[in-house]
Amino acid sequence: MAEYEQDLKDRVAIVTGSSSGIGRVTALELAKRGAKVMITSNESKRILDTLEEVRQFSPESESLEADVTSPPCMEEVVAYTMRCYNRIDILVNNAGITRDNLLIRMSDQEWYKVMEVNLTSVFRMTRLVARPMMKQRYGRIVNITSVVGFTGNPGQANYTATKAGVVAFTKTVARELAGRNITANCVAPGFIATPMTDKLKPEAQNAILSQIPLARPGTAEDVAQAVAFLVSDRASYITGETLHVNGGMYMG
Ligand code: NAP
pLDDT by residue (tens digit) across 34-91? Predict the structure, then answer.
């Protein structure tokens, strides 16, 4: 057994959007490494499926159905986590959506919806966990951004703006909270095979694949390993950074 396999033993982690894709696999990876995980997303059935899997590795994990665009729901996620475990060590802001459209056709609704889910929720959740983390003098925050937050992408003015915003937000959080032993970093996936990218037409998928030096889509596991590293004590001197997981598609 690798020595880091239980490197998150008894840490308490909240993962938003953990019913599917990258969030689900990240929750599983943290649980395998010993963390107690709070599974949250919008959809109750898939949350319970994830919880069942996660509990095989971390029996004390819990779940709560919670829309990240609802401040009372997010307050309840944090309050419930504190009631269950009396601490919060790790926050992974993973929930995200796309509402693609070309700039000239993009509606205000498409713009604001993506802002609410991908950026405002990251601000709200981070603000909520900051207090308990500051009190503990320990915290690990990882925000999931995207390669397109660095490169731009036609049809994704809303999405790319949120993902670039998350990077700058994370740097500010890293500076503000460093004195309390709290790190804040981003993971920037490239093209990862999940329900989000399954929606793309085969031509669009092939066009992206042709830009990836490692010549394959990433997996949710590839991303989860990067998150697990950044929330571990092995990354205790890394803050304000973005770890790119993109098969060489973009090199910062
Ligand atoms: P996904 O499979 O569609 O999963 C998205 C997750 O977010 C789901 O669990 C979904 O829950 C949750 N979610 C969406 N809206 C929510 C809301 N209002 N409240 C609570 N939860 C909500 O997508 P994914 O590919 O794993 O994406 C995960 C993250 O990685 C996102 O931030 C995405 O932008 C980022 N990312 C993905 C890729 C990629 O290639 N896949 C690349 C770069 C970045 P429900 O379905 O239960 O509502």
Answer: 999 999 999 889 999 999 999 999 999 999 999 999 999 999 999 999 999 999 999 9
Residue of 194, 199, 200, 219 best suited for mutating to test ligand 1, as the one with most atoms within 8 Å of CB = 194
Q: Which atom of ligand 1 is nearest to the CA of 68?
A: 19
Side-by-side strand order, sheet with 62-65: 62-65, 36-41, 12-16, 90-93, 139-144, 182-189, 242-245
250 falls within a domain:
no
Q: Is 23 in the pocket of ligand 1 (CB under 6 A)?
A: yes
**CA nearest to 208, candidates 243, 248, 244:** 248
- Domain assignment of residue 208, yes or no: no
In a domain, residue 210? The reply is no
pTM of the model: 0.98
Helix, strand, coil percentages, rounded to 5, for the chain: 50, 15, 35
pLDDT at residue 210 in the model: 95
Q: What is the DSSP string of 95-117?
A: ------B-GGG--HHHHHHHHII
DSSP states of 64-99: EE--TT-HHHHHHHHHHHHHHHS---EEEE------
CATH number of the domain where residue 135 is located: 3.40.50.720
Looking at the 3D structure of the chain, how many domains does it have? 1
Give the residue numbers spanning the domain of 89. 2-191+220-242
